[in-house]
Amino acid sequence: xxxxxxxxxxxxxxxxxxxxxxxxxxxxxxxxxxxxxxxxxxxxxxxxxxxxxxxxxxxxxxxxxxxxxxxxxxxxxxxxxxxxxxxxxxxxxxxxxxxxxxxxxxxxxxxxxxxxxxxxxxxxxxxxxxxxxxxxxxxxxxxxxxxxxxxxxxxxxxxxxxxxxxxxxxxxxxxxxxxxxxxxxxxxxxxxxxxxxxxxxxxxxxxxxxxxxxxxxxxxxxxxxxxxxxxxxxxxxxxxxxxxxxxxxxxxxxxxxxxxxxxxxxxxxxxxxxxxxxxxxxxxxxxxxxxxxxxxxxxxxxxxxxxxxxxxxxxxxxxxxxxxxxxxxxxxxxxxxxxxxxxxxxxxxxxxxxxxxxxxxxxxxxxxxxxxxxxxxxxxxxxxxxxxxxxxxxxxxxxxxxxxxxxxxxxxxxxxxxxxxxxxxxxxxxxxxxxxxxxxxxxxxxxxxxxxxxxxxxxxxxxxxxxxxxxxxxxxxxxxxxxxxxxxxxxxxxxxxxxxxxxxxxxxxxxxxxxxxxxxxxxxxxxxxxxxxxxxxxxxxxxxxxxxxxxxxxxxxxxxxxxxxxxxxxxxxxxxxxxxxxxxxxxxxxxxxxxxxxxx
Length: 600
What we know:
Elements: E1 7-10, E2 13-14, H1 20-31, E3 37-44, E4 49-56, H2 58-75, E5 91-100, H3 104-122, E6 126-130, H4 141-144, H5 152-157, E7 165-169, E8 175-181, H6 188-200, H7 204-209, E9 212-216, E10 221-227, H8 232-242, E11 247-248, E12 269-270, E13 277-284, E14 289-296, H9 304-317, E15 322-328, H10 333-346, H11 355-365, H12 376-379, H13 381-388, H14 400-408, H15 416-439, H16 448-483, H17 490-519, H18 521-531, H19 537-562, H20 568-599
Parallel strand pairs: 5-9, 6-9
Antiparallel strand pairs: 1-4, 1-5, 2-4, 2-5, 3-4, 7-8, 10-14, 10-15, 11-12, 13-14
């Protein structure tokens, strides 16, 4: 199965919000990394702070974050900084946020590596916070930032308050190109010596840069729920019903009564129903309505669609309706896909439908276009990255007619391997179609989940095979590129030969992957021929025929490319695997066609 592309977001906060030339130098440093998509630059004059948002694949994002922090340390002097927002460094906070294909734990490890590099190579002392914190108390940013920049000497010289990663400082007060890991300090003598140097004189580089909190956190969604009321008080009441913090427990009147205190003098709270959320109610002049404004800080614990339903429930209890939802900023695609599937399942409808249809269900179910049109291409991070990428047009983006015409041209690619992958996708698509028709068949309502699961499997398989359509053509182009390498010297000849062999191996492995994926379509087609809507049994049969053609066609490509490999042991293994899949495909197709013929 094609692995989901890894994407992370980075939202560094830089302590400069007034001088655009300084901000531009920092964002230029970030954008100097290939593969980075700069999404937003939001300067604030009163806070004297700029929030920058960019996304990309993990290594590119980490590199861009390092370059941005290093540049900020060069162009921002914290000794002269003043603003309304708490801060302790030129780069104040630097969180890495998982968007797709990567876990929070993986981002936390990347954050620790980044913090260590910033201390080692840029001389910036770094705290590890949120998910990357080494101690529970440092998960809280306020603990790391206590005292702000003005407490920098105390923060760097007091055991227990020191950053997790610090540059090494020599006895004459100069920075060395290595870092001091306070989390692994086993040498008390070195520790004391380091503190002595810091107490006497901090290097100018550290005084300029201050400290940075580097960490990893879940994606935060800012969302407003539109209400059919103008009452801020009632909107606040709904917000207090749902937000994790809840509302104070009061004596007597629940609104005007005195808040109750516990034995320690702390206000006793009645918790809300949604973990990982913060919310308030407010009135928006622009729209003439009140809203429940919410930050969802843990989208795994409280997904957007769950929050929507709970706000609707609490609003209805107070005689109010939620008329729609306003997403502020951007969201990962999975947030809307999960929502669309959630609402489909509530209707007992199949979730094995195209992604675009699932997104439309999410948009209409939550009223995302209530106040203004909602365009997923402008609000979903993955789509923004796709639209911003400078890539050639994919074969799968062509029309059916255009695909056939492109295949017919005298160029050798796309060729048989690409067509095989497309036939496999069509085989999976036909099986999926029968599953969706069966899921919605009158009288079969109690079986909707059974067929929905088959359709969902089919959609995943179809997506994988459509990816292989272009990957097979790319594999052939790699071979052509390798043959085009220079071959004047012995070194060039050796490099060219190695590149040809590597590309040829890849060109044999890709169609083998196509064979394996296409073979999975038989399970879906067999199940649909046996159990699916009888009126569509012929479609399941055609799906099986397409899957067999895909397996056999891709097998030919495995064999022709394996024949050019010098490593015969590898070549014979590839051919043996291909022959095994061909045999099983012939048997599966024969079995499924017998089922189909018996029902015609």
